[in-house]
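Protein Record: Sequence and Backbone Structure Tokens
======================================================
Tokens: labelled as protein backbone structure tokens, with as many entries as the chain has residues.
Task: work out the structure tokens from the sequence, keeping to the layout shown below.
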Amino acid sequence: MAQKNGLSAYRQTRIKTASQGQLIVMLYDGGISNLDHVLELFKRKPDLKKDPSKIEEIGKSILKAQEIITELMVSLDFERGGEIAENLFALYTWFNKELLEAHIKSDAARILNVRNLLDLMRASWMEVVASHSASEKPESTAGINIAG
């Protein structure tokens, strides 16, 4: 129990001290991780018929990924981000639609496609985060507010 509380405290501290860019990368990490879990469960498809709880587990992981993508959507700053924010919003909307369809049809290819695109976007954000000087003071992290 103490170990679980320590891990939780570490995660909270990591989130509270992260820059906006680092928070975005963390969101991408979470989405990718959930979709990786779904893909692993799909690989064991014969077991799904024997164990219906795996179907529920797939649904929960897809829902978590969709919630993360929705968080990325609502954090867009359309005033500062303009067309980039609009394009990201459309892409995130498409991601959530694809994940919904993939869940309904048990389509691992759609899951993999969204997962790979999230990974590409994560890599881009990693470059953005790395390009900022370590000496810069992190912006307020009360909420994520990205311009695109």
User: Anything to note?
Assistant: The CA atoms of residues 51 and 110 lie 23 Å apart.
